[in-house]
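Hi W.,

Here's what went into the run:
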Amino acid sequence: MMNLAHLHLLLNHFPIIGTMIAVALFLLSFVGKNTDLRRASYIIFAGIALLSIPTFMSGYTAEAWIQNGKDVSQVLIDRHKGSAMLSFWFMEFTGAFALVGLWQSQKTSRPANWNVAVVFLLSLLTVGLMARTGNTGGDIHHAELRGDNELLVNGKVVEGPIGSIASRFEPSPDKFMNAMVFSKWWWTFMMILHYMGLILIVATVGFLDLRIMGFMKQVPIRPVHEFIPWGMLGLGINVLTGMLGFIGQPNNYIFKEDFWMKILCLMLLGLNVALFYMTDVFEGVENVGAGEDAPIFAKLVAGTSLFLWFAVITFGRFIQFSFDTFKIN
Amino acid sequence: MAVPQILQTIEQTGISTWIRESDSVFGFYFFLTLHGIGMSLVVGGNLIIDLRILGFAQALPLKPLKRLFTLMWGGLILNVLTGIALFTAYPTKESTNIDFYVKLTFVALGVIAMKKVSDRVFGDLSLSEESMLARGQALAKWSLLFWFLAVTAGRLLSETAIYDTYGHLAGG
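Here's what came out:
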């Protein structure tokens, strides 16, 4: 029977292979300064950054399942977790700068040079770190990968030359977790920022969605769209604070249906955004003027966005209320 | 601290007990969720108008934004109603917490700023946009500050509570 450990095994391929594909397209885009390839790579970076969120989170459920009565090394699990923490944050920053670049492309047909340089550096580091994460994950339960080499000697991992360098930068999962919960005031500060991010998103994205749906028709759509960077800032704040909060208390979340429903709604919102910008929906609403109506399909996309954001708020609020839904057999 | 007996009386009513202890999805967390949505409407609407007054998205015409006040007042009404429900569930917890009064103060100041923006900036739509914007510069900044502080104070409520219910200390 499928469980959340299967979810991790399914999802973990996307960040590893996805970043390789995105980096390949990105590097190819320098040949002849191909803006289409660059845009495609940026879209993949942003999409993979979003998908890395449930991938990372499901790692904790996979850990809970694999530890249940199984003979696995906690040292190898912690090694993989530390590697995942590092590669995850690099992936999120790569995705964030890719989103900024996509926004810049709307205005000037291509990202700014500084943005390209930052994405170049971050993406190369990320693809390497993701490969390391995949490797350390495989080491947990696939002894055939190690060949004749003993990975654990006296309870410590024997790293290769690259692993020795990488492991110096990988955080200790326990220390990272404790750093998030060492003070209730730090926790509260993170949650205050999470609320602020929520307000930024609902205000800006909500305003755009309502206008597209037909509210406040006296306003042309293009200037409403100018508020979206504030929404992107709110999203960045919430991914940061949400993930830090998750790392601090993973067991408060991973066994709850409401939590996974919130994450699912966030992934569906990602698809909704892709539908909005990557098809002709955005082109159809961009030049809708004062007094004019947006196309029906655009209204449907906007309405879906509004519904999903309120679902995110509702499921998020109910996490505290709900009891554990998933049990480890 | 001497806690008024009336608070225990409120907590012992059927409505208070139901909101506080019910396993129904329409219990305490339902009201809390609606309170959060109301907050998003009020503070979110103020954010859009204040940012516009302060010069962001200058291509956005100012006058039509008057319609946002409908959403904002609606959100405020929602928050008053859900706030009463939440207070009814935990009257001791809230009324013995100084942060609760701090929050209400900043909410009141935010609402006053919102009303002043509505009257002073959007009161006379025959004015030019430049004149309207000039009337709201200081108000917009204060509004942003008050709502930021109101949200912060609201979020701090659970951490600063002394009592959970009458006679029971928080975290005990």
